[in-house]
Amino acid sequence: MTALQQPTTLKWDAETLSRFWAYYSQFPELYFSHQKGRDVVEFVRHLIPEGAGVLDYGCGPGHLLPHLLDAGFIVKGADIALETIGSAVNVQGRKNFMGFDTVSGLLQKDEKFDVVFLLEVVEHLDDHWLEVTLTQARRLLKQGGLLVVTTPNEERLEDNIVYCPVANVTFHRWQHMRSWTAATLRDALASRGFRNVNVQTRNFTSAGPRHVSPARYFLSKFLSRLQKPQSIVATARG
């Protein structure tokens, strides 16, 4: 009997990442910004001036954009590539929606924003791309502008490792590359020149379910407060 070949760890190149996210863009319910985006916007809204120019950096299918527009901000979505950008939402033609672009396109045009959101982005980045992304986010902020970052809190990466028998590889089911604590996220932002870094842990509330009674929904909200916080949220000034 032939000995089993030990699996290798999947290498996330540009083509693999593109296929991976093109597939998962079909399932909006799996996205943090779809589940929790409204609550994130409400949580930081008091820090953002009315009519502020806001960029959703790493917007993907675009689930956060309607919540930003509902809050009255002037909004643009950006990502690395345009293939699936904004594919899950219908915001074209909405007042204050300024369209989509690539991050490189915004940088070339030297566009600046009052606020940059980085929702559930930093856990997907290796050391090189973390440096690139935080540097770019700072360049895209106006002087004194606000950066908003969310990421899973103290995630055990090994709990989400899965195996593909076809390719004989293992990988994190959501393509996470690193786990963050409040302290490591604070240090990462401060060491890259961001000021007034404030970091908290919390459980964000999902959008209300359609087929659950209000009493059961609010009970679930109460119980979630008793659990370990699932998210880290950081705000910082550029």
Summarize this, please?
The protein has 238 residues and is of the alpha/beta class. It contains seven helices and ten strands.
Walk me through what this model shows.
This protein is an alpha/beta fold and 238 residues long. The protein has helices spanning 14-24, 32-44, 65-70, 103-108, 127-140, 182-190, 214-224, and strands at 8-9, 53-57, 74-79, 97-102, 113-119, 141-152, 161-164, 169-172, 195-202, 231-237. The longest helix has 14 residues, at 127-140. The mean pLDDT is 90.
List the helices and strands and how they pair.
Elements lengths: L7 E2 L4 H11 L7 H13 L8 E5 L7 H6 L3 E6 L17 E6 H6 L4 E7 L7 H14 E12 L8 E4 L4 E4 L9 H9 L4 E8 L11 H11 L6 E7 L1
Parallel strand pairs: 1-8, 2-3, 2-5, 3-4, 5-6
Antiparallel strand pairs: 6-10, 7-8, 9-10
Features:
238 residues, alpha/beta, 7-stranded mixed beta sheet, 3-stranded mixed beta sheet, 26% strand, globular
C-alpha geometry: globular
Relative helix content: 25-40%
Series of secondary-structure elements, N-terminal to C-terminal: EHHEHEEHEHEEEHEHE
Strand content: 25-35%
The poorly predicted ranges are: none
